[in-house]
Specification:
The structure holds 2 protein chains of 2 kinds. In chain A, the strands form 4 sheets. Chain A has a 7-stranded mixed β-sheet. In chain A, strands 2-17-16-20-18-19 form a 6-stranded mixed β-sheet. Chain A is of the alpha/beta class. In chain A, 23% of the residues lie in helices and 21% in strands. Chain A has 12 helices and 21 strands. Chain A is globular and about 65 Å long. By secondary structure, chain B is mainly alpha-helical. Chain B folds into 2 domains: 139 residues; 175 residues, no CATH class. Helix content of chain B is 62%, strand content 1%. Chain B has 18 helices and 1 strand. The chains are: A alpha/beta, B mainly alpha. The interface between A and B is large, with 78 and 58 residues.
């Protein structure tokens, strides 16, 4: 067993972590998808309002590669397709029928698959809507079905506040996980399982799979950081990654022949009525997840995904394709008298400029910006906190003067988009936004 | 009380908003209001949570760290003036006398500097940056107590406009604005900024009218060292023992004399993470690295050679404004470098240059000021090479 210790990064002590209690959420009446939240894809709709769909029938495909299809997480009628500005597909909502129709896929037996051609597996994964779970570095776009990656990283455990704990989603699903891994080995002979929690019981995996344990502050659980810490050659920059829970989906699909929709998700944050793990389904409505029987607090921001990289969503929308968590925290739009000079026993900070360094308990954090935007004073906090050793303050300056080459040399493409630089910046500069959009822009240029 | 304050701001807000009579002064209103009330801004997108540290607190902490030398400076100015003019040396009257000298300088510095800040902020539509509060305080602290107030005004104008605003304001300046102002006065009005007669204010009383008192500063005494009488001896004879220099009850710039107070400020800066210890320790090492070999040569030749190095190296750390400069000026993140290794190099070279200027060019005893300004220019270059070396270790990803 290999343990890798990381020391850069930062885990703020935030109140509202989900307990290890795992409830089963009652079946929602509607499910949906939010195609515009999936980075880079250009969705082309395959359904229209009023159509009847079953679980696993295609809803939309990616225009860039029509083989990549996204399947319906529910069976019933499409009751609403919401378009946003420039006709981006914001939402596809499906009203579920009592007895949901589900599509059954014609699959070879599992043993046959393990010995079949790679292409067969790829086309089955594309057909089964599982391909988009595989994403490729450095841009974190969907993996290309025609490429063979140098390595596939399986991320078991995400330490961004607050996501599902692998110990919980692996329980009773170890067999599917192992099956998923053995299929991934057909895609690429180098598969590495990266675990960030000690007490996770992994099933017995094939010998060729490298299992690595990581310890350290957020974002140790980020596959990009893990790649940065383990890569030895530039070829590995184009590795793929997949979340542990999605590996279970792959195993389940090939064992059952049905598009798997069950998911373990979390509700967290200091304003969540009950911060717990929930067994629910893909594309569940946020209101059902959040409320969980109780009222949604009105001052709360609903964040689909983690507190650093998630997106703020209406409580009436649906869970994203890649998100497995919903967090509710205080909007924090309050003025504070003489805030800059208070001793700050209750103010969480990466710096040591607050008495909160003596505060051991977690803080109920809010979405306040805690200060106004100022020019960069080169304080270097971003460089100190960056888990992949980018120098955000210098990279930012390269990017504002369009010195892309230099920014790339600084490691722009190693950026894992963890959001810590934006979090820590005392000048409140949106560093993550600058870096992420520069990466996306560069990707378009070279594509 | 907070409620009343809020009402006051709300009542006067319409004058400053667009269309109001004082529309042009909105940056001033905004600056005052945001000091009293941190605005209720929320994050627009990810990351949804933000650290509590902002630039206001960052800069405020620099100001707090300046308080020990500031108050000691007021005391010492009053004390030296009292000593020279044969007046009461009780604590209260000394403080009052010192405040009478220092506070007008501070007020002129803040008022005139703020005028330029508001002018540029209004024209550019910027906010007033907190960085100015530090500049406006640092500058008068580095001046001799006899500086005429009009020179304070001219100096801070130069520092703010030429040192900072023409480059685009806080965060974009190449030189430390407070030091730019100080250097401007040093070269423009040398009679008021150097020599033996400017360091003690004489309060005229009754018949006994003395214009000024002549008291050579320790740095001015350095070149008097000879083969027979080393500089340490010269200093001791003039009453400048190491202990006195460390505590700082000597004539000098109003708030720069006490190394002890700067040390307290430095501890505060380092503990809160606002000032970088690398610049400071690098500076001390640099000064010693130049001073020690020279001193050893002086000792080993029995005073025949390197008489200029005859002062004990530790004296360099407590003489003049070395401590003040290295703690408060060399740690300025904007005009200094941004990489940790660069900070060591930058600090080291500041210390080394300071001693070299002091020893080899006694015409400019204020070596630390010139050394820091000189290294400000080189900070981007040091960073450039340090970054280059560091990037070589990365596995390329393009």
């Amino acid at each position: 067993m290999e343990t890798i210790y990381l020391n850069k990064g930062f885990s703020p002590k935030i109140a509202g972590g989900p307990t290890s209690q795992c409830r089963r959420l009652h079946e929602p009446q509607r499910v949906g998808m939010a195609p515009y939240r999936i980075p880079f894809i250009k969705p082309r709709l395959l359904v229209k309002e009023g159509d009847t769909v079953s679980i696993g029938s295609p809803l939309f495909e990616d225009k860039r590669d029509p083989r990549i299809r996204f399947l319906s997480p529910g069976g019933g009628q499409i009751d609403r397709i919401v378009f946003g500005p420039r006709r981006v597909v914001q939402e596809i909502a499906i009203t579920l029928e009592k007895k949901e129709p589900a599509k059954t896929f014609e699959l070879p037996s599992f043993e046959q698959l393990e010995t079949s051609e790679r292409e067969t597996l790829v086309s089955l994964m594309l057909e089964g809507g599982l391909w988009p779970h595989l994403r490729a570095f450095p841009f974190m776009d969907l993996a290309s079905p025609d490429a063979i990656p140098p390595e596939i990283l399986v991320r078991v455990g995400d330490d961004e506040p607050f996501g599902p704990s692998p110990g919980i989603y692996l329980t009773d699903r170890e067999a599917f996980f192992r099956d998923g891994i053995s299929l991934l080995l057909r895609l690429c002979e180098n598969v590495a399982v990266h675990v960030i929690e000690d007490d996770v019981k992994l099933p017995v995996l094939p010998d060729s799979v490298a299992v690595r344990y990581f310890k350290g502050p957020y974002p140790t659980g980020n596959p990009g950081v893990q790649l940065y810490r383990t890569k030895t050659a530039p070829q590995q920059n184009t590795s793929w990654f997949i979340d542990g829970q999605d590996v279970i989906q792959i195993g389940k699909f090939f064992r059952t022949g049905q598009y798997p929709v069950s998911r373990v998700m979390t509700v967290g944050g200091s304003l969540a009525p009950a911060a717990v793990h929930l067994v629910t389904r893909a594309g569940a409505p946020l209101r059902a997840l959040v409320a969980n029987g109780a009222e949604t607090p009105s001052a709360a921001r609903v964040i689909a995904g983690g507190l650093f990289t998630g997106y703020s969503a209406s409580v009436d929308s649906f869970m994203g394709f890649y998100q497995n968590a919903v967090n509710l925290i205080d909007e924090g739009d309050r003025e504070e008298a003489f805030g800059f000079i208070r001793p700050g026993y209750n103010k969480p900070s990466y710096s040591t400029a607050f008495l909160s360094v003596f505060h051991r308990k977690p803080f109920p954090m809010d979405c306040g910006q805690h200060g106004e935007v100022r020019a960069c004073v080169n304080c270097g906090i971003c460089a100190k906190i960056c888990p992949v050793d980018i120098l955000p303050q210098f990279t930012l300056k390269c990017l504002v003067v369009d010195e892309v080459e230099e920014a790339l040399a600084h490691g722009l493409l190693d950026c894992v988009e963890c959001g810590l630089c934006t979090y820590a910046c005392p000048s409140k500069i949106e560093l993550r936004e600058v870096l992420v959009s520069a990466k996306a822009h560069y990707y378009k240029e070279i594509a | 009380m907070v409620g009343t304050l809020k009402k006051m701001f709300n009542a006067s807000r319409h004058h400053f908003e667009s269309g109001g009579r004082l529309e042009k002064l909105y940056p001033l209103f905004d600056a005052v209001e945001t000091v009293a009330f941190s605005p209720a801004l929320t994050t627009a997108s990810d990351a949804h949570i933000r650290d509590s540290l902002d630039l206001k607190r960052f800069m405020t902490f620099v100001i707090i760290s300046l308080m020990p030398p500031f108050f000691y400076g007021i005391y010492n100015t009053g004390y030296q003036a009292g000593l020279a003019s044969d007046l009461d040396l009780g604590f209260v009257s000394v403080m009052a006398r010192g405040a009478w000298v220092v506070l007008p300088m501070l007020m002129v510095s803040y008022t005139v500097g703020l005028f330029w800040e508001i002018l540029f902020a209004s024209v550019r539509g910027h906010k007033i940056s907190e960085g100015f509060l530090v500049t406006g305080l640092l500058f008068p602290m580095t001046l001799p107590p006899t500086t005429p107030l009009w020179q304070v005004a001219v100096g801070i104008s130069f520092g703010v406009v030429i040192g900072k605003e023409i480059f685009g304001g806080t965060g974009r300046n190449i030189l430390n604005p407070a030091l730019t102002a100080r250097a401007f006065l040093f070269f423009a009005y040398p009679a008021n900024m150097s020599g033996d007669r400017v360091w003690t204010l004489v309060v005229q009383s009754g018949q006994q009218a003395v214009d000024a008192i002549t008291a050579a500063t320790p740095l001015a005494l350095l070149p008097l060292a000879t083969a027979e009488k080393g500089a340490s001896q010269v200093l001791n004879d003039a009453g400048y023992t190491f202990q006195r220099l460390f505590i700082g009850d000597i004539p000098g710039s109003v708030c720069e004399t006490s190394a002890l107070m700067c040390l307290i400020g430095a501890a505060f800066l380092v503990v809160t993470g606002v000032g970088n210890y690398r610049n400071m320790i690098g500076g001390v090492l640099g000064a010693l690295a130049v001073a020690y070999p020279g001193y050893l040569i002086y000792l080993s030749t029995g005073g025949e050679m390197a008489t200029l190095f005859s002062v004990h190296p530790l004296y360099h750390l407590v003489m003049g404004s070395f401590a003040f400069g290295i703690v408060y000026m060399a740690t300025d993140p904007v005009s200094g470098p941004g990489m940790n290794l660069s900070r060591w190099i930058y600090g080291f070279l500041i210390g080394a240059l300071t001693v070299m200027i002091r020893v080899f060019n006694p015409a400019y005893p204020e070596g630390v000021m010139l050394a820091i300004l000189f290294m400000n220019i080189f900070a981007p270059l040091i960073d450039h090479f340090v970054i280059k070396v560091r990037l070589r270790k990365r596995i390329p990803n393009v």
